[in-house]
Predict the structure.
Amino acid sequence: MRARHWLLTAIAGLAGFAVAALLVIVIFAARQAGHVGGAASIGGSFTLVDDTGAPVTDKTLAGKPYAIYFGYTYCPEFCPTTLLDLSRWIGKLGPDADKLNYVFVTIDPERDTPELMHTYLSSFDHHIRGFSGTPQEITRIAKEYRVYYRKIPQDDGTYVMDHSTVTYLMEADGTFDTIIAYQEDDASAVAKLKKLIAPTPTS
Amino acid sequence: MRSMLKFAIAAIVIVAAIPALAQGTGSSIVVAGPYARATPAAAQTGAVYMTIDNKSGAADRLTGASSDVAAKVQVHEMTMVNGIMQMRELADGLAVPAGGSATLKPGSYHVMLIGLKQPLTAGETFPLTLTFAKAGNISVTVPVQAMNATQDRGGGMSGMGGMQDSKSGGMGNMEMK
């Protein structure tokens, strides 16, 4: 009689534990899924160096919304096109252009030194800043921004880069707002930038 | 006198323009409308686009290229997969089917200039030698156009997205000279 009671208690206890464990797993998984798919997951802290050689962090950009694009200067087509498009959109913003930060982050830090990026960016609107860093620092910010990039070695010993082509628009507190797609039309892109400068007031 | 001079200039311009539109006409391979995009300062790479017509009855391949303006020239393919830009050298070259053509254009095939000795500036031209498996070497003169130029095979050119009304600094103002 006593042994049976003990057994029942043990089973009940085990079952309770199993249910609790399952609940924890489900909640954890749901949170993770929310993180992966949610806008809140894009962006985060970083430590890099800008194209003048000055150290920069996510705090450097705080206070102004910003547009951030990841590419590399050895890129023959997509990166110059994106930076040229961004330059044109900045021009269309007029004096309001100063209300945003614009950042070009290299995903090829081995070749893209701050000096090289500085010269490269002299061909585009002067608002655009270049960020580089150590390979580890670049890996980290790419992860924070969910940017895909991969170094592809070629037969001749050189390499090319696969990379994401979107421009992220981030709010002043560093939270994700929206994206501008590669070669998005001017009207749509400029409207997104204007909305980022002066968001619709919420009551 | 003046009209004769004008005629002479016009004649020279027209004659000079013919090879620019269709180069390599002496062979079964004809290269139409080659152009490169201007490159940003310090850029190490550039891209050349064109249409290659194969007038012969045998398939050919663009296997390589060379130019004085770059340390290395390769034939590349670019593809966009789920928003990711991927670029690869075509190890076996680019096929130009018999009686057909191959189109090199932005977002697709291009001749990639690697190790530019100086930036490509709009309005300038440079020589490019294309190597074909059967037709051998064909030299073309490549005009440099705006950084976002696109062009049809006849040489008609357009800059995408209202370059002219740009008020921004730097290359945003760049136009064809």
User: Anything to note?
Assistant: The beta strands of chain A are 47-50, 55-57, 66-71, 101-106, 128-132, 149-153, 159-164, 167-170, 176-180.
